[in-house]
Amino acid sequence: MTDDDFERIARLIYQRAGIVLARHKREMVYSRLSRRLRVHGLTRFHDYLTMLEASLSRSDHDEWPAFINSLTTNLTAFFREPHHFVMLENFLRERLQRQTSSQRAPLRIWCAAASTGEEPYSIAMVLREVLGAAANQVELIATDIDTDALREAELGIYPFERIAKLGEQRCKRFMLRGSGSRQGLVRVRPEIKQLVRFRHLNLLDSHWDLGSGFDVIFCRNVMIYFDKQTQSRLLDRFALMLKPDGLLFAGHSENFSWLNDAFTLRGQTVYTLSRPPQGEGLMRRDGR
Question: Catalytic one among 8, 108, 128, 144?
């Protein structure tokens, strides 16, 4: 991999996914993309990138998703940053107390970085614990740019060690243990899986076909991979998607207070709207 090859890779992943690749990521990039070169029987990154760029006009070419998947980091866990799920639980209970069953509007929740599924399934478990059978009325959409991660998420099957943070009670209630050839694996129970709708989505797409009016948006540990301009643009778009009293959950190292005045810090890396969203989103609430 030459310096020019790395610069081309950095430019392409930024254009397609908004991810900023610093020079210290070079060894990681080399290791991950070398697998794609072997798949195509290539020995030079220059040839691989030329092939990739030549396929820009071909909608049926499947190397672009593979390229993006290779450079996407999927670091996640069940109930990661547990204080967020306590705040989500409190938010749901407050909604229940304020609204009678006849007044209650269906809740909409968007998990914008579903990865391999641990985060949206954690949200679904909280929904089931707080709302019981009424959790079936919640629209929980989970999206990610990584198609490989989404396939794993939709399966809902994990090594037993991945559920360490669930605790014994939640493990028994929400997971099925494998036996025989499935020994050491667990599967998310159907009543939790059915609460989550997984979809492929690139946050850089000009249009998010999700509608708007979300009560909660989880976008955690994603913005750190973007530059400040992209972060600010995404925050403006999130503001148009969120209800006036909704919550935006960010990652533990993400601070947006100084970057965008649309949001105000409400809790530990949890934000709420500080002003009505500006722009065309006020005229059209379908996200278009």
Answer: 144
